[in-house]
Write a structure and sequence with these properties.
224 residues; alpha/beta; binds zinc ion; 18% strand; Rossmann fold; binds magnesium ion
Length: 224
């Protein structure tokens, strides 16, 4: 058993070295990088479709979409107007790692990118342990899930900077309580910034768009 633990530790530290390399490359070109994580079906791709639709004219956005088996999400993002979209098919792995991102950025000119979005594989467990060189992890949760998710997956909520609650149009149709999920999340991470929105109705999306544009500008500023 101790052997197994050591192997995992080694893999993680190799990932950390590559993540540092990635972070340096992104920093050189002042690219703002987010790592979007959630359970399957929370709406990561839907949120990114809306985000591309709204911000494509303002920002140069590159996206990599991780999927275990298909390129469906990447194809949806291209259809939504994404100009720089690459799929990463993990072939069974339930998370992305830094080596996959390093390989994917060979296909991009970072000097021409403002915002780099990583859509991680739908999974709230191990993606929390893999640094991808991002500026922020953003965790998405929807109102069709349990409002105790932050307590069940504390690692992910602790390492995230932002929590987005999606599908607010469905509030009231389940036992999910907005104030409960926020209380639970704050117990784990008092610094979490929270957005409440519905990709279906568009409610709350403008605040998310504005914040994202601000972050991109901030990364380019001398104050970063
Ligand atoms: Mg998706
Ligand atoms: Zn995994």
């Amino acid at each position: 058993m101790p052997e197994k633990i050591m192997i995992e530790k080694k893999v993680l530290s190799e990932n950390d070295i590559l993540a540092q390399e990635l972070r340096k490359k992104f920093q050189e070109h002042s690219v703002f990088v987010i790592n979007l994580v959630s359970s399957p079906g929370s709406g990561k791709t839907s949120l990114l479709e809306k985000t591309i639709g709204q911000l494509n004219d303002k920002l140069n956005i590159a996206l990599v979409a991780g999927d275990v088996q298909t390129e469906n999400d990447a194809n949806r993002l291209i259809k939504a107007g994404g100009k720089m979209v690459r799929p990463i098919v993990t072939g069974g792995s339930c998370h992305l790692d830094a080596s996959m991102i390093l390989k994917s950025i060979e296909q991009f000119d970072l000097a021409k990118i403002d915002l780099f979005v990583i859509e991680n594989v739908g999974n709230l467990v191990c993606p929390s342990s893999y640094d991808l060189g991002e500026d922020m992890k953003i965790v998405l949760i929807s109102t069709t899930e349990g409002d105790d998710k932050p307590l069940k997956y504390p690692g992910m909520f602790r390492r995230s900077s932002v929590m987005i609650v999606n599908k607010t149009d469905l509030l009231g149709f389940s036992d999910f309580e907005l104030h409960t999920v926020k209380e639970n999340a704050k117990k784990i991470n008092g610094q979490l910034k929270v957005f409440e929105l519905s990709c279906r109705t568009g409610d709350g999306l403008p605040k998310w768009f504005d914040w994202l544009v601000e972050q991109v500008a901030f990364k380019k500023s001398d104050n970063w």
